[in-house]
Amino acid sequence: MRGRLTGRIEGLLLGLALVALVVIAVVTVGGRFWWLPPLASQHGKEIDTLFTVTLIVTGIVFVLVQSLLAFLIFKFAGSEKRRAIHFTENRTLELVWTIVPAVILTMLIFFGGRLWSRIQLSEPPEDAFEVEVWGEQFRWTFRYPGKDGKFGRTDLKLVSVENPLGIDKNDPASKDDIFFFAGEENLHIPVNKPVVVYLRSKDVIHSFYVPHFRVKQDAVPGMVTRTWFIPTKKGEFEFACAELCGLGHYMMRGVIVVEEEEKVNQWLSEQLTVGDVLP
Amino acid sequence: MEHVRAETVHHHEPKSFWTKYIFSQDHKIIGIQYLITAFAMGFIGMVLSWLMRLQLGWSGKQFPWLGKLLPQAVEGGVLKPEFYIALVTIHGTIMVFFLLTAGLIGGFANFLVPLQIGARDMAFPFLNMLSYWVFLLSCVVLIASFLVPGGPAGAGWTMYPPLSSVEETLPGSGIGTTIWLISMALFIVSTTMGSLNYITTILNLRTKGMTMGRLPLTVWAFLVTSILGLFSFPPLFAAAVMLLLDRHLGTSFFTPYMIVADKPIPHEGGLPLLWQHLFWFLGHPEVYIVILPAMGIVSEVISTHARKPIFGYRIMVLSICAIGFLSFIVWGHHMFVSGMNPWLGTAFMATTLIIAVPSAIKTFNWLATLWGANIRFTTAMLFAIGFVSTFVTGGLTGLFLGNPPIDIQLHDTYFVVAHFHMVMGTSALFALYAAVYHWFPKMFGRMMNEKLGKLHFWLTFIGAYAVFFPMHYLGFMGVPRRYYAFDQYQFFPQGAVSDINIFISVATFIVGFAQLLFVINFVWSAFKGQRADRNPWKANTLEWQAPSPPPHGNWGEELPVVYRWPYDYSVPGAPEDYIPQNVPSVPVKVGSDGDDKGEAKGNDESR
Amino acid sequence: MVRFVLFCVAFALAIKLYAQDSAAKRLRKVSTAQGTGTIKGVVRFEGTPLKPRLIRMTQDRNCEAIHKGKPVASEEFVLNKNGTLKWVLVYVKSEVKVDFEPPSKPAVLDQQGCVYRPRVIGIMVGQPLEIHNSDPLFHNVHFVSKRNGQFNFSQPRKGMKSVRVFKNPELPGTAYFKCDIHPWMRAWVGIFDHPFFAVTGDDGSFTISGLPEGTYEIEAWHEKLGTKSVKVSVKSRTTVTVNFVFKR
């Protein structure tokens, strides 16, 4: 082993590096240099709160542990002239650092579980606005249930050039459905109203990711998945595909237009229905 | 616990060059073969990441020189999106399986286990040799997938169907994916053979006095890891077979009826989620298969170079077992938004956040080991300390991802990429480096160059943080992962994302070249390094009581006998600050009259 | 050891053989015999025209910008001013008993304004097809067919050019190009082992020349209206007029 001085210097340098890491982390993260997109949904507020709480908890642990590590390697840099202490157990310490993390984690589980239930395990209200979002390589399209509020039956075996979603014309519920060709329209939904999005896919797994709404849900072929939220701001919001779906995955951009419910209904009334388009 | 005294049959000593160094059944040679092959694969994986970072840092630019090298993948100097996701796929596959798993376990379980338990070799030396050659074959097969039409598999190392089961969805989902599946099947065969060997050897071939409670933490880690591997790899093997059947025999395990490019794909009733469950049933234990040996290695290195017994040995063992057990019931945290039943999300959230407890305990134990220590800043120790730092960073971000409401926002963003690179790409890799620097003298009988090693450490430590820490920022901004370019979106600030990506890319190249220092050091020292003593680190575990390098059969005529646990460092009253495991009671010199005043008692926690 | 090496060699060979095209490479007889018969005519439409779909390129702002925000009429049904149809592929359907060397001059398929140009293209087996991207944006070239396999590659930037060759004849209707990013894009391909095909343009006319003497079945294909065929006798150094009428 070399002299205490050389060891001290190395310990100091590494300790300083760790301190620098802590400072950079605290400043850039605490200072929100690069942050979440501005919020535009109701449940998103609670997600952001849980996020911030977790950030504070992990931030404190991060600072404490990295600093402690820095301190230890500086203080106990070695030399030939002394010996380490023989310290292999301390029941109190061990109990503390087992129970404290367990308690913190249990609280995170509790709050997270409660929020998760509210988001995913609760039923949307009866009068929610419903829309289907379909993903395919590499564009999105949408279907509205029309005035009857019911989506007509679909079957991919019925897909044709004029009928890209395979809507069953014989199902009476499909007559007033409104659909679009992929890539040719934006998604219009009402502000301040619960919106239920049913997700479908014609080919591979895609994922409906609306960053401003804190919404993400995979669209799986052969299944219908569902997510719901309440948009709280009017405007145009981008959504992206968040599940690798092929070479155009990064191009699968869509736009959600959030406006007053009357405007949405007005826009819907101007669109062609299945009855108009698929005789 | 009763253990069986080993009466190993003395094999014929290998005589020719081929049986000594190529088709060797000696665990030490096989371990080194695994290590070198793993690092070679890791180098390839690193080069793939350079290509990825080239695209992400400078996505507007053309690279004519690259276009000449790879005319199809980089047509007209433009790296194509289908090539980019093939890079992502193979990079991930290589790093997780072929570098980290093969290097840490194939390399170090092989090299260390028989030595550390006082055995002459593994329980099944021929099977051991076979496992290496099957592993090498799986490497060759995977690399061959770059040469086929359509290129290598491109659906991510996670290979979700139907993207991976239907050829028309992606160029790489042609023969490239079939080859990937074959390579993985071979890899799983190899690891299964290995697991059988490690478990059998550890349970049955411990030398006299080596009770389970006197096993070094590395051996405990390898034992639990091998059990994990034995139970978790077969579902992936089954899933790979099912995927091959979907692809080539028209079955519909995972593939529903679909329309691709307006063309119907004739399957019926398949469940893409089934693949995800099967994959992650392995995929999650897999990352613990990587991190547990890393933790065991770090415990060993810290203890030795801090001249202190590991704090809380029994709890460390229990934590390893707890992590092992819990790792089987957390896999659904990769699937919170997959469309699976949300109740499962609640269940998996609980188990996932709980698994943080034993990991936290281990971290505090390492810190406590450093308290009052007498630290020797060898390169190995620096990497071990680097492990603790990066493991804490990476582990803490897991708390975000394990909480489903937060995961909604962070899933499939760069936050995930940051998380797993910190725990695997830096932590586990640091442990692998620590292991090499620490055991190189034993492997080759020579010392590695300390100056070069420290330079390697500093560049890699700072570089690793420089590359992966900013990815957290990209994740906060919501930047999705596996994206070829980011110019399509405005929900994140374009300028900031470009700047951060350039920064990360530049850092990547610097860190990448720093790894050359390691390669140079390794190769040069293996032939020209300063000759090493039997025990240059003054360590306690049994491998240091054998010559450097140990001969065939490891121990000469007599197997060692073990009298104490491995952590008798700095025992008060002992003449030296370490007492190897095979040393019986040590007289204590106290007082000027020179009389023996009894034995120096370590903290041997097993009687 | 030897067995292992042999196994590696066998494995490498197997990969190479599988990777080679399974379609046999037919030896082509170089043929200089070119006939002198010609068939020309027009393709007319009678009845209620189909209303072409108006395409809104809403989800790709770059495409929208090229068209200044205005919707673009689909070219799936184009009725020329003189009552003739555009984008009809007319070809000799019956077997031509001569082997033809495919021309080295490539056919060109371009992507302009997020639309394929031309929409319908005829090409010979073995003739190179150059696929251009003239748009300052990402297109992917996804080809599906019944007898010529499928391929899918990206052209992320303007000016990119790729070449593909087809190995099997395929009558139009089952082979087409589509772009996954711009799902309205469509280009239909007819692949022939002879050079006797033509696509109608803005005046609905077609000319097929160089035919050897004989009786041929000539077919006209339209992507929405189907096919119409006619038997024609061609003599050397003469021109035969054939007109097609699609009714709806």
Account of the 3D structure:
With 279 residues, chain A is an alpha+beta fold. Chain A folds into two domains: 2-78 and 89-120; 129-277, Cupredoxins -  blue copper proteins (Immunoglobulin-like, Sandwich), CATH 2.60.40.420. Chain A has helices spanning 4-30, 43-75, 91-121, 261-269, 274-277, and strands spanning 129-136, 139-144, 178-179, 187-190, 195-201, 206-210, 215-219, 225-229, 235-241, 254-259. Chain A has a five-stranded mixed sheet with strand order 3-2-1-5-8, with no helix packed on it. A five-stranded mixed sheet of chain A has the order 4-10-9-6-7. The radius of gyration of chain A is 27 Å and the shape is elongated. In chain A, 46% of the residues are buried. The mean pLDDT of chain A is 92. The termini of chain B are close together. Among the domains of chain B are: 346-530, Cytochrome C Oxidase, Chain A (Up-down Bundle), CATH 1.20.210; 533-607, no CATH class. Chain B is built from 16 helices and four strands. Chain B has helices at residues 17-22, 27-57, 64-69, 81-117, 125-144, 175-204, 217-248, 272-306, 313-326, 342-354, 356-370, 379-401, 404-410, 414-444, 450-477, 494-528, and strands spanning 258-260, 263-265, 587-589, 596-599. Chain B has 607 residues and is mainly α. Chain C is mainly beta and 248 residues long. Chain C has two helices and 19 strands. At the A-C interface, loops of A face strand 10 of C.
Put the structure in a nutshell.
With 607 residues, chain B is mainly alpha-helical. Chain B is built from 16 helices and four strands.
Q: Roughly what percent helix of chain C?
A: under 10%
Number of helices of chain B: 16
**Major β-sheet annotation of chain C:** 5 strands, mixed
Computed over alpha carbons, the radius of gyration of chain C is 21 Å
Quaternary assembly: heterotrimer
* Strand content bin of chain B: under 5%
Rough shape of chain B? Answer: globular
How do the SSEs of chain C run, as a string of H and E? Answer: HEEHEEEEEEEEEEEEEEEEE
Q: Which structural class do you get from the secondary structure elements of chain B?
A: mainly alpha
Q: How many strand elements of chain C?
A: 19
Largest sheet of chain B: 2 strands, antiparallel
Helix % of chain B is 55-70%
- Predict the CATH topology of the domain at 346-530 in chain B: Cytochrome C Oxidase, Chain A
In DSSP terms (H or I, runs of 4 or more residues), the helix count of chain C works out at: 2
